[in-house]
Automatic annotation (TrEMBL):
InterPro entries: HAD-like_sf, HAD-SF_hydro_IIA, HAD_sf, PGP_euk. This is Phosphoglycolate phosphatase. It comes from the Eukaryota. The keyword Glycoprotein does not apply. PANTHER family: 4-NITROPHENYLPHOSPHATASE-RELATED, HALOACID DEHALOGENASE-LIKE HYDROLASE DOMAIN-CONTAINING PROTEIN 2. Keywords: Hydrolase.
Amino acid sequence: MQVMLRSLPSTRAGARPVRPARKMTPCLAASRSIPRATNEQKIDLLKKVECFIFDCDGVIWLGDKVIEGVPETLDMLRSMGKKVFFVTNNSTKSRAGYMSKFQSLGLDVKAEEIYSSSYAAAAYLESINFQKKVYVIGETGILEELDLKGIRHLGGPSDADKRVTLKSGEFMEHDHGVGAVVVGFDRYINYFKIQYATLCIRENPGCLFIATNRDAVTHLTDAQEWAGNGSMVGAIVGSTKREPIVVGKPSDFMLKNISATLGLRPDQICMVGDRLDTDIMFGKNGGLATSLVLSGVTTEEVLNSPDNKVIPDYVLSKLPDLLTVKESAMVAA
Ligand SMILES: O=C(CO)[C@H](O)[C@H](O)COP(=O)(O)O
C-alpha cells in the first residue's frame, strides 16, 4: 500500500512526541488498482489545461502547515502562464481571512484567486435577493461575508457561551424575522445554537436551511482528521427532518458562480482535490478534468474500493508530483 504524505509536526526537545496522523478510514477490500499518473500524463495535463482549481485542506495545506513542495509547484504553474484558483469548503474564514492565511504560509496568492464556502453562502443569499435575517451556526468567515453583502445576521460566535439548563418551564424565544439558517463549521457549536436553529427552521414560515458543505471529516490539524461540517449539518437535519441547500462543493451553485468568474471552457480547467465526494465530484459535474491527490482524506484503499464510483482522470500522491516533469513541461508549453 502507498505510504501517505504527511508533514508531521517537528518535535521540540523535551516535548511529548507527536503521534503520526491517524485516518478515520473505513475497512474496505480493494479489488482494483487505479494507477498514479505517468510522466507522459502529467505533461499532457500541463499542456492542455489553462487553469487549475485547487482545493485547500489536504492539497495546499494540512491544518496550518503547507505541504512540502507546494510553493514551488505553484511558482512553476504561474511561470507556465497557468491560472490558479483556490476553492475551499471550510467556512471558518472569509476570503479575506484566507488571504491572510495564504500570506502567513508564505504563499503568494491574489484576493481574486480565492473562493470559500463562507462566500458561497452570502453569494447564494444575494442571488435570491434575500431580505430577512440569517441565524448562523458557524464562525467569523460567514459573518464577514454576510456583512460585505449587507445581510443582517445573528448567532455565530456571540452564542458560543450560551447555555441551556432545561430547568422546569425553560422556554427559548427566537427571532421570527429570521428567514434563513446557515450552518458552517463551528468549533463552538452547542445545544443553544442547535435549538435556536431548529426553532427558526421549524417555526418561521419559509425559513431556508443552508449548509456551506457536508464534508464528513477533514484535516483541521496536520496530526489527525476531525469531524467536519457534515456533523453540524447532520444535527440540524436530525432535529428538523429537512435537507439543506448546499452551496459549497460539489454544488451546482458554486460551480456556476466560479465558472462565471473564470470565463473559461470546462475542458480548459482541472479540479485538483483530495476528496472524492466533494472535489472530484464537483469537477466531474462541471465537465472539468479531475486530479485526485492522496495527501489528504482519501486513501488508496478508498479510491480502489469497488464501492467507489467517483473515478478521477489523474491520481497524484501529492500536488508537487507535477514538479517531476518541470523541465519537459516547460519545453512543451
Ligand atoms: O467541514 C469542513 C471543516 O470546515 C471541511 O471539511 C473542510 O475544511 C474542507 O476544506 P477543503 O474544501 O479545503 O478541503
